[in-house]
Specification:
Elements: H1 7-32, H2 36-44, H3 49-71, H4 76-106, H5 109-112, H6 116-153, H7 178-194, H8 200-212
Helix pairs in contact: 1-3, 1-4, 1-6, 3-4, 4-6, 7-8
């Protein structure tokens, strides 16, 4: 039987979902970006624009997978799985940010083929973008790591209904109450009278015995 997520589990899930959505949007933006100036910087660093876009797509796909795991949250174990996936995505963005800053530093204006002023502007903006991604990814990864530790400390969510013990005998039925037992016995006597087994006098005598054998509160 499925476990019902606790309040603490749902709160951690909400924070992780927000973080995941932010990085999904960022990944889509990076994968769809098309700038010839930045393409030259990437080429100068020994990669291609297609490689850069492929990395962004892979990270976005993993982030979407993590979002799916967190969206269908059913237990603490599933929360930890989603958090680990988000952490891996953020680790990838940390490396991607370092690559962007390194590419901006390695590029030389003559090899890029445009003026020094424009070249420096492109390098600065690309390097700034890399540092922004690196710092945001590091901060987000730190928070997600805390979430993973907290999720590991959470107790397993309490099931919504206690499952029966596998392989064990079923629990005995609760004993009938005195009143319900009396009603049952009276019905049996009435059935015996209607079937002709008991006469009216015998029925009344048995009925009186049953009623006298019960405490007044049960009458």
């Amino acid at each position: 039987m499925r476990d019902k997520p606790s309040r603490a589990t749902r709160q951690l899930r909400a924070w992780l979902v927000v973080v995941t959505l932010v990085w999904i949007l960022l990944g889509v933006g990076l994968a769809a970006s098309d700038s010839r100036d930045y393409d030259r910087l990437v080429d100068e660093a020994g990669a291609t624009d297609a490689d850069f876009a492929a990395v962004a797509v892979v990270l976005t796909v993993v982030a979407v997978l993590a979002f799916g795991v967190l969206f269908r949250l059913t237990s603490v174990a599933r929360l930890r799985t989603g958090a680990v996936l988000v952490f891996l995505v953020l680790a990838g963005y940390v490396l991607l940010g370092l690559f962007m800053t390194s590419a901006a530093g390695q590029a030389s204006c003559p090899s890029l083929g445009f003026g020094s002023t424009h070249c420096r502007s492109v390098q600065d903006s690309y390097e700034t973008g890399g540092w922004v991604i690196f710092i945001l990814a590091c901060v987000s990864a730190a928070f997600v790591l805390i979430f993973i530790i907290v999720a590991g400390a959470l107790k397993q969510d309490v099931p919504s209904a206690a499952p029966s013990t596998p392989g064990g005998p079923p629990p005995p039925p609760p004993p009938p109450s005195p009143v319900s037992q009396l009603v049952h016995d009276l019905k049996e006597l009435a059935a015996l009278r209607d079937a002709g087994i008991l006469t009216e006098e015998e029925f009344q005598a048995k009925k009186r015995e049953l009623l006298d054998g019960n405490p007044p509160a049960a009458r």
